[in-house]
Amino acid sequence: MEKTLNRIHPVSDPEATYFLQVSWEKDLGTGFSILLSDGQCSWTGTVSEAEISREAADMEMNKEKYVEELRKALVTGEESDGKYNFVIS
């Protein structure tokens, strides 16, 4: 299993710091687990392959392109800093 951990500062609260951990088996396209923490509380969830395919179709993107955008936003971290915005609600 592969995992990444990134620090994010959501545009909804730029002074706050959150930690985003993404875990996957083969690649993000087959689904992944996510853990978000503010250092005091944490929230977890899973995204299935079917959900990824459905979201890609809703956005009228092919799945491979959508998965690449997910990788850039959720896994790459500092390299994509400023290219993706996070809103916590």
Automatic annotation (TrEMBL):
GO terms for molecular function: DNA binding. Residues 17-88 form the XRCC4 N-terminal domain. Keywords: DNA damage, DNA repair, Nucleus. InterPro entries: DNA_repair_prot_XRCC4, XRCC4-like_N_sf, XRCC4_N, XRCC4_N_sf. GO terms for cellular component: DNA ligase IV complex; DNA-dependent protein kinase-DNA ligase 4 complex. GO terms for biological process: double-strand break repair via nonhomologous end joining; immunoglobulin V(D)J recombination; response to X-ray. It is found in: Nucleus. The keyword DNA repair applies. Gene3D superfamilies: DNA double-strand break repair and VJ recombination XRCC4, N-terminal (2.170.210.10). This is XRCC4 protein. The lineage of its organism: Eukaryota, Metazoa, Chordata, Craniata, Vertebrata.
